[in-house]
Amino acid sequence: MPPWILKADKLCKHFFLHELRRQIPSTFEIDLELQPGQLLAVSGPSGVGKSSLLKCIWRTYLPASGHLWLREADGTVTDLAAASEQHMLTLRRTELGYVTQFLRCLPRKSALDVVAQPLIETGSPAEEARERAAQLLRRLNVPGHLWGVPPATFSGGEQQRINLARGLIRPVRLLLLDEPTASLDPSSRDCAISLLRDLKEANIAMLAIFHDPALVAALADGEVRVEPPPPVPEDSGMLGRPQGQAT
User: What is the pLDDT of residue 133?
Assistant: First the structure.
């Protein structure tokens, strides 16, 4: 078995509401170990912190406690819970990818350029990036007449395909997926499943939130179960150091 690429040990995240002087628990004591080429499905009831787990790895959120280790391409093991912001920016460019639930992009940029942008930002020539973007858009059955149109005018399913193509265009070692197929029709979902299988065969590790059990059965090599955290006593509102968002 190859060495793990991502490992979590008792990872926790909570939020602190200063106005109410209350601590709100979220992701609680997550343990996981993810190998290259493996896809682990993040499961659990709504509201227990599944998306927060992905955001802690991406470091949009700062974990409250525990450890979160990434084994980088050169073998260096970095604790993402303690890494500097500069180091995280580098990892986002070179090691990590993230497909969020919703597409966020400049309103007047064409769909083709929205998908190509992450590759251009890493130094690829614009024409090569657009050709790779076109390949992904074809693979996800996005009609050619939409490629030159801003995605803000698209349906929810069309926007999600643009978002998925944009998130997959850049070569990474660890890919985070937050409900990447939730708005897709069955045909488009099958295209996405085929694409994700190809990424697994290319030895890319993935951590994914899927609400469809059929997707878990089709793609997952295992599950990471996120359970509700224990309730916080009424008199412990100021316990724990405040934790919020990181840049």
Answer: 97
* Degrees to nearest 5, angle at CA 46 with 154 and 59: 75
Mean pLDDT of the chain: 88
Q: How many CB atoms lie within 10 A of CB 142?
A: 25
**187, 158 Cβ separation under 8 angstroms:** no
Q: How many CB atoms lie within 10 A of CB 43?
A: 18
Listing DSSP states for the chain in one string gives -PPPSEEEEEEE-EEEETTTTEEEE-S-SEEEEE-TT-EEEEE-STTSSHHHHHHHHHTSB--SEEEEEEE-TTS-EEETTT--HHHHHHHHHHTEEEE-SS----TTS-HHHHHHHHHHHTT--HHHHHHHHHHHHHHTT--GGGTTS-GGGS-HHHHHHHHHHHHHSS--SEEEEESTTTT--HHHHHHHHHHHHHHHHTT-EEEEE---HHHHHHH-SEEEEPPPPPPPPGGGTT-S----B--
What confidence tier does 168 reach under pLDDT thresholds 50, 70, 90?
very high
pLDDT digits (tens, 9 = 90+) for 126-137: 999 999 999 999
> 183: pLDDT confidence band, cut at 50, 70 and 90?
confident
